[in-house]
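User: Please fill in residues for this 119-position structure.
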């Protein structure tokens, strides 16, 4: 069984920063990519950022470009999300996920960590 565990969420004032971490445990696996998503109650899950281990290519959702940075360690299936210049609209539960193959789908998901940005 694979588990992804997020940490680093919390309450921060607008303009501040947070760094989320996600670590995998349990059965070893090899991932193609890892990513971050977020969701606000009553709204659809939103893509935040992803990193493809081959070549280290990253991509970001439009709402976070220039403010958030994704990085990670392929060998450890660990991924981080550095969030700067946070805005109240960044408030959400943030989930990390791992994709095993490049088919557009994510196979493993964490339980989420709450990020709250106060104005």
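Assistant: Residues filled in for all 119 positions:
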């Amino acid at each position: 069984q694979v588990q992804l565990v997020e940490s680093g969420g919390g309450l921060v004032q607008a303009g501040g920063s947070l760094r989320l971490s996600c670590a995998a445990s349990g059965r070893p696996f090899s991932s193609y990519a890892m990513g971050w998503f977020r969701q606000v109650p009553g709204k659809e899950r939103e893509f935040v950022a992803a990193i493809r281990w081959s070549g280290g290519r990253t991509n970001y959702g439009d709402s976070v470009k220039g403010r958030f940075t994704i990085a990670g360690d392929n060998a450890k299936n660990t991924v981080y999300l550095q969030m700067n210049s946070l805005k109240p609209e960044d408030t959400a539960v943030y989930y990390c996920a791992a994709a095993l193959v490049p088919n557009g789908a994510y196979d493993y998901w964490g339980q989420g960590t709450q990020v709250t940005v106060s104005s």
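For context: The mean pLDDT is 95.
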